[in-house]
């Protein structure tokens, strides 16, 4: 098969810095190419050049063997599904699908035709979504599918999917892969960007690996072992499978007694100092709600005890004063102060530590020094501690957030999806940090949709379904099949 | 990451973007040169004194507005709170002839309106724009009802003197404004409260998740904004000689304009009192200069509007990184 899209010496410079440097690869019709690399390796820039958002500084893209200066998405049949959804939440599915080219003329839109187009598209993709449903009433997964359907309406030759599975539940993910297979059979070429190695191996035919803007490998995936590919991406060996966990103590750090709210019921758990408890379950099982309730961010009934004593009243301030911290799932909306410097982000949860004892109200002593220490300890890659957090990559932002809480020397940590959207190198570092934290005697509760993550670092996994704890597994009994069937409610 | 190239550059990296944060500086320099060439009176001591005195009210209120802007809110009521507290303080002073009672009344009235805003916005979660617009109406109504629409007479003579006294060549009321500036520069840069104001403005949800008591911080900035409005009202009596019910009516846009031109971001989390001082200075110089060269008031409004465009554009172009 000849290549539909060929990339030759593709380079992009920003302010004299080569963010992407000399890429060379082909994408054939019906081929799924995995674009892999760490955060900041140049994947997004490559994606943006391929879908026409950016013009290359040097090199070229050939479409059917013809060099083009800049991709015209409509004319060249290219579309991208970006990480941030581009749907209009208050409009219907039909309106969203047809918004780029509404049938009829400016003064009168032909809604009947729009509906037909939408229905045909949904049917072709094998999706059962009501075309009249308002987008914000759909789940995250269905919205993602609508996004893909929308992209495909304007493009049918190359589809770029950027981390399409991060907000999907397992069945939705299967649905997405099924759709990708259909498109493949129809000859649509795809570029698949993901941090999940399992998915990469499952759906892709070949790979292009980037590191620091350079292409460090390309070829068929069949010939490359997973460890090799990871090594290629990160430039060092990463071994998640042989993690040594220290034995937890017997001291109770945090105990939940029959917590109840609208989102969960009868949750009782106990975590010892030095223990890592994983909470597995599907999206919507009430895990985030539970974690937020424990931290006093949402109302709930029942008792939360820290160090054997009930926390009354249950709110963020009392929980923090008892040495509990909470790392929210959505770092951009709930965690980071994007337009503030790294230093202020790191001290945000405990600025009182730096208030001068004899001269309160005269600045914050040692704040900067501690910021530098955290940056060094967590290997956060920042230009400067005074740089704005918005300018960091996702993995480094997550490390800043983690660093903020670790600096408070917590007695117990609630971590909600601590490695969401983070590349494998940063993920490995964060896992190492969590395990060390437990070794130092902190109790850790990790909520995660990434089961291999929990299998790797947890002493114990509690499974949640529809707001209830439906089972618990000790490390010796970890079994992904059992855990998944318990989480989905399917018979084992 | 800092590369070798960066360290060798003559102009430090980010210089332009930093300059863009202070769009007022460039414009002020330009205006100073222009006006002093065109008008021989511009840099005369008497003129500068008059300029400082007349703008003390604006400066005090602009500090309050900056606090609110930094949390991502807006206080539309501040200008008419100036009027209301001036009128009520004026009435109290006319009845008692006590300056102390007058100050306390002005501060109490301002703080009262501020606390009302603070409770509605910080505690009950109403929208700042609508809430303070309503308070604005109430305060304006109060000012006109109590004064029956005319200037309140009977200001103590000692207070009238305050408007003329200068210390080290600077009018006493300007010293009051500068003290307010110094106080809030200190509060914002060196205290926990100041840090919390910036963080709440940067990301309200993240502040809550980090254990910052967001409603308390929000209540605080509106209460303080009201309090400063009250102080500005009192100072306006000293400046003008009477408590005038319409004193604040034209000030709101000047106050907001000064804060915006100074370079404080309306979305919160970015800005400072220092920038607002520059913004106030800029508008003060502009209006004064235009008056001296004989441009009528309404034409000045047009110039002010255009200037706000230019200032915002400068801040946007050089102040932020393009993605």
The CATH topology of the largest domain in chain A comes to Rossmann fold
CATH topology of chain B: ABC transporter involved in vitamin B12 uptake, BtuC
Helix-and-strand structural type of chain A: alpha/beta
Biggest beta-sheet profile of chain A: 6 strands, mixed
Number of alpha- plus pi-helical segments of chain A: 17
How far the N terminus sits from the C terminus of chain B, by CA atoms, comes to 17 Å
Average predicted local confidence, pLDDT of chain B: 85
Largest interface: A-B, 31 and 28 residues
Strand order of the largest sheet of chain B: 1-2
Q: Which class of the largest domain in chain A in CATH terms?
A: Alpha Beta
Question: Radius of gyration of chain B from the CA trace?
Answer: 20 Å
Described by the principal axes of the CA atoms, the overall outline of chain A is: globular
Number of helices of chain B: 15
How confident overall, as mean pLDDT of chain A?
84
Summed up, the domain count of chain B is 1
What does this entry look like structurally?
The complex is a heterodimer of chains A (492) and B (323). Chain A is α/β, with parallel strands linked by helices. Chain A is built from 17 helices and 22 strands. Chain A has helices spanning 43-50, 73-76, 93-98, 111-124, 140-154, 170-185, 197-203, 226-234, 287-294, 316-321, 331-335, 342-347, 367-377, 394-406, 424-439, 451-457, 480-488, and strands spanning 3-14, 17-28, 32-36, 58-63, 66-68, 78-81, 104-105, 108-109, 158-162, 189-193, 206-211, 214-220, 252-260, 267-272, 276-281, 301-306, 309-310, 324-327, 412-416, 443-447, 460-465, 468-474. In chain A, the strands form five sheets. A six-stranded mixed beta sheet of chain A has the order 6-9-10-3-11-12, sandwiched between helices. Chain A has a six-stranded mixed beta sheet with strand order 18-19-20-15-21-22, with helices on both faces. Chain A has a four-stranded antiparallel beta sheet with strand order 2-1-4-5, with helices on one face. In chain A, helix 6 (170-185) links the parallel strand 9 and strand 10. Chain B has a two-stranded antiparallel ribbon. Chain B is mainly α. In chain B, strand 1 (166-167) and strand 2 (170-171) form a beta hairpin. Chain B has 15 helices and two strands. Chain B has a single domain, classed as ABC transporter involved in vitamin B12 uptake, BtuC (Orthogonal Bundle). Mean pLDDT of chain B is 85; it is low at 1-17. Chain B has helices at residues 4-8, 15-20, 23-38, 45-70, 78-96, 99-123, 128-147, 157-162, 172-190, 192-202, 204-209, 214-240, 251-262, 273-292, 297-319; strands spanning 166-167, 170-171. The chains are: A alpha/beta (492), B mainly alpha (323).
